[in-house]
Amino acid sequence: MKSLTFTRCMFWFGILFLYLPMVILIIYSFNAGRNVQVWAGFSTHWYGEVLRDRQLMAALGRSLRVAFFSATAAMLLGLLASIAIIRMKRFRGRGLLSGMVTAPLVMPDVIIGVSLLMLFVSLQQAIGWPQGRGLNTVFIAHTTFCVAYSTVVISSRLRELDESLEEAAQDLGATPVSTFFQVTLPIIWPALLSAWLLSFTLSLDDVVIASFVTGPGATTLPIEVFSSVRLGVSPKINALATMIILVISLIAFTSWYVTRRIDIRNRRQQLAYQREME
């Protein structure tokens, strides 16, 4: 009984530790005063200020574009890497490929940022590309480290996939390509969605790597916020953070709901297939 009470207390302590700062931030985003530490009344004034701040909105737009394309590219590359690592049994370089792809997971962001900066500078001197640093270099950098996370998520799901389903489809005359699109892809779709969302969040949240590879006119939202916070926390930052939390929460809930529905449908299909085989 005491153990159960202690476990429950630690659980609620962990919940408060994780989410209480967010709750305080959301509450003070409606503060009418300019001082973020003193409550001066309820107001939505700062939300309007955020929407009227062109520099902040431009940085948000750049961050969303980079995060979208980086997450999409990382998901596709992670899928290809996962297929090579899990499905290509005769490929002797599977272990080396797995280590190289997942290496950014254990590397500090500073090391990744410096190495990519040196790479872009060397390429510019050698072939004249890229011309300076901007959104293209940020996109490449974010895709590079997001591929590692996508590969881990997708490969774990692909490893658990029952290969007899693919073999049965091929025995019935399906080509490897049609087997992938009609059998494999619908089953691993939740993992692809999870990998995309994780990569999108990591790209949208990155400060360290982007600070090395970005340039004038290509400042992302995290860098813009970090620069503003160094001069003092503005109530606009609280309002912006609340808007981002709301959007991410809606995306996470939608992802959970869609993934749950897909999992239920796939389980029903697998049970129906097993009953037919019996």
UniProtKB/TrEMBL annotation:
This is ABC transporter permease subunit. It is a multi-pass membrane protein. Pfam families: BPD_transp_1 (PF00528). Signal peptide: none annotated. Its main location: membrane. The chain crosses the membrane at residues 9-30, 66-86, 106-127, 139-158, 179-198, 237-258. The lineage of its organism: Bacteria, Pseudomonadati, Pseudomonadota, Gammaproteobacteria, Oceanospirillales. CDD domains: TM_PBP2 (cd06261). It is found in: Cell membrane. InterPro entries: Bact_Polyamine_Transport, MetI-like, MetI-like_sf. GO terms for biological process: transmembrane transport. Keywords: Cell membrane, Membrane, Transmembrane, Transmembrane helix, Transport.
